[in-house]
Amino acid sequence: MTEHITINSRAYRLPSVPTIIVCIDGCEQEYINQAIQAGQAPFLATLSADGAVLAGDCVLPSFTNPNNLSIVTGVPPSIHGICGNFFFDQEANEEVLMNDAKYLRAPTILAELARAGKHVAVVTAKDKLRSLLGHQLRGICFSAEKADQVTLAEHGIENILARVGMPVPSVYSADLSEFVFAAGLSILTTERPDLMYLSTTDYVQHKHAPGTPEANAFYAMMDGYFKRYHDAGAVIAITADHGMNAKTDAAGRPNIAFLQDRLNAHYGPQLARVILPITDPYVVHHGALGSYATIYLRDEAQIGEVADFLANIQGVEAVLTRVQAAHRFELPPDRIGDLVVLAERLTVLGSASDKHDLSGLTVPLRSHGGASEQRVPLIFNRKVANIAPSRHLRNFDIIDIALNHLV
User: Fold this and answer.
1) Angle at 202 between CA 201 and CA 207, to 5 degrees
2) Contacts for 88-94: CB closer than 8 Å, 24+ residues apart
3) What is the largest CA-CA distance in the chain?
4) Backbone torsions φ then ψ of 135, nearest 5 degrees
5) Neighbours of 8 (CB within 10 A)
6) What is d(CA 130, CA 118) in angstroms, rounded to the nearest whole number?
7) What tens digit of pLDDT does each residue of 80-99 get?
8) CA-CA distance, 41 to 353, in Å (whole number)?
9) Alpha helices for 74-211 (secondary structure H)
10) What is the pTM of this model?
11) Tell me: the pLDDT tens digits for 229-263?
């Protein structure tokens, strides 16, 4: 009889062969389509016939932390609690990064499978995710960003630089993601983990559109590793934390709605606090500009008036109250503002113009965060069975499909 484990009210079969879950940061299907069309992704090209190529929605906001944690818990932010890269901690009365595992409200599938006796490995590009992905995990867990600091005692593995044969990459490079895949190959062939989670960085997607030589080369690199994983007998399940879009006008200039500036000019500086949950330690490639913002108001009696004001700003797609946003986007209501603002596809939201350093934007701005970046691929190197055609798939269904629905 196949063994199962229940995690966050979902049942999963225990993996019987090495299963690799890949989260390609900032990927949308068009990147893969263009790479295939250019002949740069021959292995991925075979999966429409030999595997399964599906699509689903990521969670909103379409940022890294909420989606990676949704993928590894199998549930939305309303349950696991991680609703941004950055938020206003009302208990502490301060704006903080949401990287600390103390903010996590649900166990991960990774930790629970390890507790059930399975060998689990995690390699993430940026160290900001390591403590969340590795929360209570007894296994391998480290970041490419700090691969030179990996120890057996803390990370479950050692000598990773020597094993991979690459130096520590720059955090602002495609090499950071390649290190993740190279480390994953070393772990697959040596340790043979039952489940491995690989998470990349979206540096390339922030700078290069689908079909560009740089983007195609990046996907060609990944395609080569996927083929090697496949040849080594692994199940491969690929999704993304979010998509990516240009956020510019026809001349390539950033389309930015600076909400704090607009609110201050209309209501004075004391009424509203604008929080940008895209904010993380790595803002060079996006300037902390995304298509989702939350607003905290000093006077809740003005919520309706302020919502109407924000909705009339050019580039704003939707303004929701706390209750509306929590319900529609499955968010924890105690960790979002009085209002949630989404931008249209070609626009990003800023706070005050003097709070954003755009000097690092050497190419036209590309970013994410809104509903326009919600559609992402779900790709497998095996056939999928017993999934109803009417089922609304999410990126956080990837482990369920990989363990329960592949043949």
Assistant:
1) 140
2) 88/273, 88/275, 88/294, 88/296, 88/337, 90/334
3) 66
4) -60, 120
5) 16
6) 19
7) 999 998 888 888 888 888 98
8) 41
9) 77-80, 109-115, 130-133, 152-155, 160-164, 175-190, 203-207
10) 0.95
11) 999 999 999 999 999 999 999 888 999 999 999 99
